[in-house]
Amino acid sequence: MIRRWFAILVSILLSAPLMAADTPAFFGLLRARDLSPFGYLRLDMRPGFSNSPARGEWTIETDFAYQNTWATSPKVEQWLNSLDGRHELGPADYQTLRDLPGENYLVDLELAQLDVAINYQFTEKLGGYLVVSGASFGGGFLDSTIEGFHELIDGPEFGRPAAARNDYNVLFDLEGSQYAAFESPGKGGFLDPVVGVRYTTTSASERWRVSLESAIKIPLSNRSAALSTGRTDFGTQVSVQRFSGKHALYANAAVVYYAGMDNFVSEPARVLPTLVLGYERRVTPRTNVILQGYVSRSIYGREETDLEELRGMKTQLSAGVHHRRGAHLITFALTENIGYINNTPDIGWQIGYSFDPGWN
Fold first, then answer.
1. What does pTM read for this prediction?
2. Cα–Cα distance, 320 to 260 (Å, whole number)
3. pLDDT class of 223 with cuts at 50, 70, 90
């Protein structure tokens, strides 16, 4: 069902008729960030604005994202597929996982995150922002829906039917780092805040816009509750935007210095590049559709894991709809894993609300 709606959004983007209307503001790339359990605590630069707020103007953005992750190493998937019937995973299963040859892991959870970004324009070109985020993770409710879709298309089971539905299970034996959690109750809290500045310039024809941005993630949240890495991350990005009639093209390149962490599993400091490409199209005077792709380097290298899927590039495709009512903007989008299955969420969705007093 979820992937069917994703296909519908993509088809709307590619086939929707152009409608005569006064040109509204384009709304830009989806502000979605990486929600992978293998990196959601790090700084992930949010794509920049497509509009140019006036001096002294402030805007508010809220984005709620929800994702389901089921990720296993190949030998764990084979072991799960060999089991007869469902059962709740526990310490005995973790010991079995550890006894399997090679390096193995299992991640079964759902993660929800709310981002609130407050933006202020100091001058015509220079602005700043603060992002405050909260996250909650647990067993969730999407397992039956996803398994039903796999049955409908006669797709692989990936070992899912061996585990109890809507449980929270994290089993790691990542090159000697060992961690296990089973059926944990829902947890959550505030993530580390992010502070940034953005410089934007627009061509005389207003067809091109370039933004330069820098941000810092400040480690203030609870490390023991998996809400912070306990270290400071830095990032910078450049965004190039091209507008033509009812069409907009976006290219967003970012580089983040991830300082790593040593709680739960050990992760070294690493420089992580990310590329986001997008196409936005106006459908009605108030509604735009957007398709965008996300590619980012994994936080793991050969020093941390021998598993190619965890070292592989994270690639995701998102399709969404922007709808504006006066100064209010509502966004809905779906995100699908299109690369390595076991290093990013299976499926995710995002609902966003933005307020910009400059919009009529």
1. 0.80
2. 32
3. confident
